[in-house]
Batch of 3 targets.
Target 1
Amino acid sequence: MSRLAAYLGPSAPVATIVEQGTYSLAQLARSDADGWGLGWYPEDGRHDAVRLISRQPLWTETHHLELVRRFRSRCVVAGIRSVLPGQVPEISGAQPFASGPYLFHHVGELSLFREVFERPLRERLSDRYHRTLSGLTDSELLFGTWREALGDRSGADAMADALEQMVSAVQKIAHANGTPASFAVVVADGTSLVALRTATHGVPPTLHTIIANGEAPIPEGARAVSSEPLFPGAWTALEVHSLTIFADEGR
């Protein structure tokens, strides 16, 4: 299945959240080999996020890791993915998705997406946000739904509220059709992370978090959020049906 990891804390090489740790994304990518993505905030005085995405296995593209080791950031969102048998790993489906200062990464599934969820969710979007969609994945349509709900607001509270509105829109469709949807989502704006873990039916994908100590392979005091623990330490599993805001205390 797809996996995500996010970093918030002291300035560090962008590749840190991808490479560091016993169970890093770079290690896990050997089994999730259908693409990867990396988004961060360059230290150039601008607020927009940038991203690097590929549909190739991460472990075959070490030249990209050599590049991002030379960039530093206080906030990074990364992911690797595994598509279902018979599906083509479209480049447009590689996460995280980016819009202005925002990064968005979803792990989970809208079951029977084409048959049940796609059309009603698309019909909710204004032309402004519908035009931003370039692919056919459920995760990108969730991003568009979240971005529509956020509008021109900013800040962690607004990001969290927009996630709640996104889930509410999906829940109405899911319950009306008896079709499950699951979410493990992280959104970022460069100074905060908002993590959501929920499902309309059953148990959602896992999310874990930690504040790094001096023995961690990431800077001490940094916050990490990931699908599974990336390295040994006092990781905490986020509860089912939880929405949590993490702020960069160093800002």
Target 2
Amino acid sequence: MLVIGPTPPPFNGMSVATDLALQVLGKTVSVIHLDTADRRNLSNVGKVDFVNVFLAVKHAVKYLYLVLTKSPDFVYIPIAQEQLAFLRDAMFLVPARFLHKKVVIHLHGGYFDKFYRSSPRVMRWLVNYALGHSVRAVVLGDSLRNMFRGLLPQDRVRVIPNGIPDAFESNDISGDCSRPTILFLSTLMQEKGVFELIKALPGIAKDVPDMRAVFAGEWLRPQEQAAANNIIREFKMEPFVEFLGPVAPPFKHQILRAAHVFVMPTHYRNEGHPYVILEAMSAGLPIVSTAVGCIPETVLDGVNGFIIDPNNIDELIHRVVSLLSDKSLRNRMGRASRERFLGNYTLTRFAHDMHELFREINGVSPA
């Protein structure tokens, strides 16, 4: 199998997804990996510059070489939801169609249908042609089954939620050993709801005066970092806020273990099934998030957290305060998060679902 995709660093959803796919598939099939990573920081994502163009051409040439010389049975491609990024993916998909290769596409977001239907006619034609030879498409949740409507029949679309390794033993999850702590763990960008949380902090601190908010992740845009610092200074929230920058294991596990509530009020249009929410659930944290992508399938409102409306700062304050102030509620929801993670979102379950997918494709089994 030829697997296409970036690996960390930098750490983002796509690079983590590729790394996990390699772990899972590499145990049962012979895997050839075409690493499409750009090792620069996240600020280069989505930009067109000389390096990005050079890398795209380099990866396309290497792909053709691997397909022609290694003759893989399958090509596994995570596909994008933006025009420029999909043009890059088309450099893999179109040759696969010409060469009659079996293709599995994996969609890691929830915007593809809107991207396709809002694109110019030429782009829609390219999408139709590039995907027409796909054996299967993988989406992350039941709510995303229709991402390929009009492009692929429903029986060729498989729902496989994300899964991650379990980094926490049942007796090694979050506790009440520190100040009431809110954790935001993701790329720091406006679309992920980082400003909503920052603006909510004065209201939270009013009711929970010893609280602190920890932000872990890399700023995507310097101007947004400057704007966030200005808001924090304006409301005199410096004693309550800590920015850690990008984090990786084992430090990531330490900050998850020390947190009490995980908050990500995202309204990112490309959101799919965020790994960070699964990590917080594995750590036994209650979640406050929004009904974006597959999040409401993962965070059940009132069970292992709260689903709030995007941009509703008053609701965000109310839900976070209720969790920080009520230890019984926080513990109950934290246990529910841990149980939902173990039942639905482990790497073992993800591996099983991926293996089942390939067993179904033309009777080919990777096991």
Target 3
Amino acid sequence: MKSGKPSYSLVLFASFFAMCVVILGAWTRLEDAGLGCPDWPGCYGFITVPETAEEIAQAEAAFPDAPFEAEKAWPEVIHRYFAGTLGLLIIIINVVAWTNRNRADQPFKLPLLLFMLVIAQGMFGMWTVTLKLWPQVVTTHLLGGFTKLSLLWLLSLLLNNRPWQQPTVPVSQWQNLRPLALIALILLVGQITLGGWTSSNYAALACPDLPTCQGRWLPPMNFAEGFNVTQEIGPNYLGGQMDGEARVAIHMAHRMGAVLVTLVLGFLIFKLYKNAGSREMTRLTHVLLGLLILQVSLGISNIVFSLPLWVAVAHNAGGALLLLTLVTLNYRLSKVSAF
């Protein structure tokens, strides 16, 4: 077996599958289908969506407070099955890692961490339903999905074992980019967290105009309520419970975060172009610039066009791709000392 290749192909496929799960999760959330199935892990007591008149009548009798809506149940069930399949893929990755544990090129701790994350994600998936879309749980569940995707991608980079092109600039110039690249990654994770909090509290349309908010540069905002992570659980967060000023505070924080991340990424891209020194680094910088422009455009479009479903889902996917690009950049820069 050649160095890491079978494991690499499996992990690469799992990374692609994890991206699908992230996109499906965004679709489910944005369709307001998070409670499309009022129970867990089944759906109205069935392993899939009730279809016949008899099954639907049985479902509504069992859950009288949750009228059956097929258009809401299907996104939730599809997301659950994709997430479950991803969990199985990660278990297989762990079996392969255990089998190859004595090989120097086979990471073992990272697959184990992914397995533990799968268990945690399953619990948060259950709590998302049982706690009826409590924002703290929904946001943590979203971050867990992004974390699984990032760790799978990092594992694929570790298994690839492909030497990076020798830089034509002094190695020190790439090493000096490490702090900035790490800061950009941390800020992007923070912005993704803000995006999840914005979505889970239904604050995406709290400001329907740009660049002002409700016609004002500084509208009334209640940050204390908007970012109160100790709020009580229940009874049901579908549609949100916060007042207008709290939602405006969340929305404006996400906007300000977007400006900060754009500026930092823009500066990082400038420094990368200035110190590229290889075709691979230049190509990676092109990707980062393209994704940044796309993500900013999608964010603006969400507001201008009042959150079209496909734009909002694409915005989530764009955030995931930006995250993977920065993970790749930080990984590559961490290997500079090997030259």
